[in-house]
Amino acid sequence: MFQWYRELGASERKTFQACFLGWATDALDTQLFSFLIPTLVAVWAISNSEAGWLGTSALLSSSVGGWIAGILCDRIGRVVVMKLAIAWFTVFTIASGFANSYEQLLVARILSGIGFGGEWAAGAVLMGEIIRPAYRGKAVGNVQSAYAVGYGFAALLSSVLFAVMPPENAWRWMFWIGALPAFAVFWTLRGVGEPDVFLAMKRSLQTRGVRINPLAIFNRRYLGTTILCSLLALGIQGGGFSILIWLPTFLKSHYQLSSVSVGYYIFVLTCGSFVGYICAAHLCDTIGRRRNFFLFAVLNWIMIPAFIYAPPLGVVSLILIFLLGFSLLGIYSALGPYFTELFPSVIRGSGQAFAYNFGRAVGAFCPAIVGMLTTANLLQLREAMAACAMLAYVFVVIAVALLPETNGRDLSDVDADMVAPEPQGINKARRASAIQEKEA
Predict the structure, then answer these.
(1) pLDDT at residue 1 tops 70
(2) How far is Cα 327 from Cα 324, in angstroms, rounded to an integer?
(3) What is the CATH code of the structural domain delimited by 9-439?
(4) Given this model, what pLDDT does residue 76 score?
């Protein structure tokens, strides 16, 4: 199964390792907050709606940070931006642990979100451009499995800290310890260079005296791709957020579990997601990107109600939450390679980052909507979670039905085919350069 990894070159392996560690750290920071919601509700006497906005605010700010990072990726480089993003969210994750009020934590979460949004944007483009076409789906999908590692570590960390510390101290240490893996990411990134395809495009633009307008992704030539990729990301992330952010709270209320036991259940879900990431990574190279998305959307429509409405059944419940993790998170694997193959190098960072983070921003309202529906007593928690998640995957099916298959696409061919005729941002720059030369 992992023969492809042994066949990677030195630069491909270093990139894989750095992005794996980076995304695991991102996942750890994102998931640990879900374990803290019941504690923060009790310690600070906040409502479910306010708790939901703590999660939503970080996801919203991450969408802004992700798009900014994507634009910078096209300007200054993928590796540089990834380092900056990791440093940023590490600082503010540590700051979150020092918060003494709801308002202070809200500000810290908003600022930390800017960093982890940028990390995905830089890492996904970096991986997609360095890994050869034959292994792109497997490699990027397997890096996505780092989220399962981060989620699993968050579950274990939660169980251990809440078992040995009082809740009012344990939640702070969750944030502080969660920031430590970022230092390992910096160490690994030392040996990672910029992708050849990016360097070639940068040299070409410098020779021609052209600068790319980051809004070129909204040019008529690319607008359809940008919109459909954004809808795809919205469906996947909106569905995932609706379940994952509220899952520990649901397990406590529906299964009557302690914080320690919740950690064990989430760990099983994480194991399922790890298997899902790996399977989806291989499937997107064998059956194609589009069929892979269709398959996992259907699996989610089956598994979400199956888990949400099943009564506590011991081992059966553990099997169901394993399968839920498989479908709910495995669907993410093909996003990175698919977006990389749909945009040319000149706008790949900004296009990929905008689409993914638009989906993250709009999808981030789903946990808040779940919280508001339960606070207003319109729906019970499980009904609100299921409704938001099930509806989100409609966007996945619509987007994939209208997008092309890209399995095995050579990125240099993408650039040659899609850059000419050139987007509006490039044409304007070339006309201005020609006028200046004529005047001179």
Answers:
(1) no
(2) 5
(3) 1.20.1250.20
(4) 85
